[in-house]
């Protein structure tokens, strides 16, 4: 890579203009770093044409540009991005507006969990627009993570709050902003193999560490609890908060 990952992310952060967007960036900074490093292992970055599916906010896309990728994107009508290289469409139902066998890599991170319908169509479209021997890189929350297991032991739901089901008589406007369906690692690999992808890597990793920078620091008791949970995740991979799956066409 032409720049160190820390330098790349620092450059992306400098372009952020609002407090809310910076707070989002800090929450996801460790995930961005992990993904960029994985992309560096895939192939010749300087010649890679990449599609970022669900590219809002444009943090990861900007970082991939800095490492030399030719980046295109897809955003949604509720989170649009105005750019000649970013298409706005519904990935659950629409045909991606790109040619067959066009991309070396398709990246889809923290998107699947937001889809209220089946992701099968989107994953098939990712396959169609990827070149032979090209890759798809997916990350999504691990439904079996330690926090969810603790919630279930306490009799709590691991899905979105009931208040969102009842919002506006069940016709709330937040349908694509919440997590509608989270997955196990086996489920994500099954989704890919169903669309003819060959799964090369399937693993758990930690996206949300207690050591990440924060706009408002955690109270000491909360930091202690998060640190203990982090230690637990490091001991048992299946308790980690995020899934990473890399497929090849």
Main beta-sheet strand count, sense and barrel state: 7 strands, mixed
Determine the structural class based on helices, strands and strand pairing: alpha/beta
Portion in strands: 15-25%
- List the strand order in the largest sheet: 3-2-1-4-5-7-6
Mean pLDDT, to the nearest integer, reads 93
Uncertain segments are none
Helix share of residues?
25-40%
The string of secondary-structure elements, in order, is HHEHEEEHEHHHEHE
Radius of gyration: 18 Å
**Principal-axis shape:** globular
Distance between the termini: 25 Å
Helical stretch count? 8
Q: Give the beta-strand count.
A: 7
Could you explain how this protein is built, in words?
- The protein has 249 residues and is of the alpha/beta class.
- The chain is built from eight helices and seven strands.
- The chain has helices at residues 5-14, 19-42, 60-66, 120-129, 146-153, 162-166, 185-194, 220-235, and strands spanning 49-53, 70-75, 86-88, 103-109, 130-141, 198-205, 242-248.
- A seven-stranded mixed sheet has the order 3-2-1-4-5-7-6, with helices on both faces.
- Helix 1 (5-14) runs antiparallel to helix 2 (19-42).
- The chain starts with a helix and ends with a strand.
List keywords for this structure.
alpha/beta, 249 residues, seven-stranded mixed beta sheet, globular
